[in-house]
Amino acid sequence: MKATVVGAGIGGLTAALALRNAGIDVEIHEQTSELREVGAGISLWANAIRALAKLGLGEALQARSVAYSRTAILRADGQVIAESLLDELVRSLGAGEIPALLVLHRADLLGMLSGRLDCAIRLGQTCTGFEMLEDRVIARFAGGVEVESDLLIGADGIHSGIRAQLRPGERVHYSGYTAWRAVSKFEAAGWGVTETWGRGRRFGVVPMAGGLVYWFATQNAPQGQTDPPGAAKQNLLELFQGWHDPIHALISATQGSAILRNDIQDRDPLANWGTGRVTLLGDAAHPMTPNFGQGGCQAIEDALVLARMLRTHSEVPAALRSYEAERIARTTPIVLRSRQAGVLAQLENPLACRIRDFTVGKIPRAVMLRQLQSMVGYTGHLN
User: Fold this and answer.
1) Cβ 342 vs Cβ 356: under 8 Å
2) Cβ atoms 300, 13 nearer than 8 A
């Protein structure tokens, strides 16, 4: 069996590795000219950590990342609104040596995945569409390249060309807020993973290995706004003036050219992801806002479930539909909950913010633990 994967992000590379482990030939086509991820960290929760460990990446992953036993939501003055003690989560999951949360640079994760692959990764290949035949599918790429295979996997992100052909005219959903992100050399030992809530804006601090800190900031804004060239850093310093340490110092320590800005978008969940020998995976299938840190984690889960279905079904279309049914049931609630969490965190009305902070702070720890368990305790991808 031969599979064509369009997209060499986290989902596409993990899918290729899982399929190769299942004895399937894989060829990856990526539209960019090089595999790289600029200015971004990634949080991997226990559900994704266990999946990557099953693929043989457990030791390498923990060697390049930082494990955390606490996350906290803070006010702009640094006062704690709520915190999660992740040691309790690990014990409740019975996950042994698997930590609840690891943080690393996305480029490191991409390097680990691509380094384990023994299949072709063809760069500079823009997919222009596909044609379905009875016993195979043809993927077409710019320049006239055509690739035949038994199945086609669209892992080409929120603006997926494969999804566009499957669902013509569908629009992305703008969340109402924009985000800046960067990785900076900064000493943040002891701060842990924090997210600070203000009125219509947030700031996240995520220390990584090697004295690096991944940070992100959000603000309610009309869609499509941009910073004038070279103005992002000064804009952020003004937006977060007076917020608790180390926010202002962290922005100041960051090179302006390293700051990226993107509007936060997702899509409404679909009832099906494909047809015949074509399916979707990762952000192409279920793009979600980053509020729960589950975008990459769910793509990794997708990959293992897809490989399992192809192992256990004799017909490719049946395997793909079974994969989609299982994964749609799993990812749809997470997409919607993540969207709702963003609405809550981005509240701007002063009274609404005070009520939000008080209410979130009063959520019993047992309730928070159950919510986390439902998201990161999933093991269906390990069957």
Assistant:
1) no
2) no
In-domain check, residue 241:
no
Structure tokens that stand for 197 in this block: 């809530």
Check if the beta carbon of residue 158 is closer than 8 Å to that of residue 267.
yes
Tell me the three state secondary structure of residue 35.
coil
How many domains would you assign to the chain?
1
205 in any annotated domain: no
Instruction: Cite the DSSP H helix spans in the chain.
Output: 10-21, 46-54, 58-63, 86-93, 106-116, 161-166, 232-239, 247-252, 295-312, 316-345, 350-361, 365-376
Residue 234 included in any domain: no
Q: Tell me, yes or no, whether 81 lies in a domain.
A: yes
Domain that holds residue 370: 2-171+267-382
CA distance 266 to 336: 10
Considering only CA atoms, which of 155, 67, 66, 65 is closest in space to residue 109? 65
Strand partners, 213: 184, 207
In this structure, what CATH number is given to the domain that contains residue 376?
3.50.50.60
pLDDT tens-digit series, residues 27-65? 999 999 888 776 689 999 999 999 999 999 999 998 999
The helix/strand/coil state of 229 is coil
The closest alpha carbon to 188, from 211, 172, 170, 159, belongs to 211
pTM of this structure: 0.95
